[in-house]
Every structure is written in structure tokens, then in C-alpha cells.
Amino acid sequence: MNIGQAASASGVSAKMIRYYESIGLIPKTVRTESGYRVYSHHDVHTLRFIRRARDLGFSVEQIADLVSLWRDRERASKDVKAIALDHVHVLERKIRELQEMALTLKHLADHCHGDSRPHCPILEELASEDPLPVHVKTDAKFGALGKA
């Protein structure tokens, strides 16, 4: 199948397929005499694997490691688990950071009158050279959420 068909079948854009090929995430494909790429069902399966890994937020480097482990029938599942758990820790840190940002913005918005006057604590805080105010807020469901 051609690159358009492979893109449609895998859910990965033709541009990303070319990129993945250029960085070695997928092997160089066979080309026709006229230079068109030809993809097999195995290539599409690999592209789907990559798309699913990207959907879970894995980096290109992590995906390369996962693809390598996926292809290695002698792999140890602990190696795959280690990559997944490392990624979970990164995601959890990002979640905490996003929660802190949301709480900080909510705190600033709560102190803004939101009227026709020019005074705005949100803009004042953004323009400040001081660090953002830190308030620890606790939620029974999530525990300590961070800045408010």
C-alpha cells in the first residue's frame, strides 16, 4: 500500500510516517521504480503501535525503546514495565504541576473584580518579579494539591 493508504490504515499522518522513517523509528520502506514508498501490513501494525504509544504520551525516544522491546521476543517484561512506570511518574508530576497552575490561576481570578476598572491582580502578578504566591490547599479526594 502507498503512504496515503498506510496513513489512513494506521491513523498516523503521511508527514509523521516520513518523519518516523527519517529518524529510524520505522525501517526504510521498499520503493517502486518511480520512487513511491510501499508499506506492508506489518509496517502499518508498527505504525499503529507507535500511534498508540504517542497517544499515551511516550516520547519518541521511549517509543523507540518500546518498539525495540516489542520486536525482541527474548525481552524481559521488567524492561517494558520500567519504561511504563518511569512514564507514569513523569505524567503524575505533570498532573501536579497542572493542578498547581490551575489553583494559582483560580486564586488570582478569585481576587480579580472582573469589572470595568483597570486594576487587575492577574496582570499585576504576571508582571511581578516575585515568585507566585504559594498557598497549600487540601482536597479530601486528592490530598495536597499545591499552590492556590
Task: Give a verbal description of the structure.
- It comes from Microvirga vignae.
- It is found in: Cytoplasm.
- Residues 1-69 form the HTH merR-type domain.
- InterPro entries: CueR (IPR011789), DNA-bd_dom_put_sf (IPR009061), MerR-type_HTH_dom (IPR000551), MerR_fam (IPR047057), Tscrpt_reg_MerR_DNA-bd (IPR015358).
- Keywords: Cytoplasm, DNA-binding, Transcription, Transcription regulation.
- This protein has 148 residues and is mainly α.
- The protein folds into two domains: 3-58, Orthogonal Bundle (Multidrug-efflux Transporter Regulator, Chain: A, Domain 2), CATH 1.10.1660.10; 77-146.
- 57% of the residues lie in helices and 7% in strands.
- It contains six helices and four strands; from the N terminus they run ααββααααββ.
- The chain has helices at residues 3-10, 14-22, 41-55, 60-71, 77-110, 121-127; strands spanning 30-31, 37-38, 137-139, 143-146.
- It is elongated, with a radius of gyration of 23 Å.
The strand count comes to 4
Structural class: mainly alpha
Poorly predicted tracts of residues: 136-148
Largest sheet: 2 strands, antiparallel
- Arrangement of strands in the largest sheet: 1-2
| Pattern of helices and strands | HHEEHHHHEE
Q: What overall form do the CA principal axes indicate?
A: elongated
Mean pLDDT over the residues: 89
Query: Measured on Cα atoms, how large is the radius of gyration?
Result: 23 Å
Helical amount: 55-70%
Termini separation (Å)?
Answer: 53 Å
| Percent in strands | 5-15%
Number of domains: 2
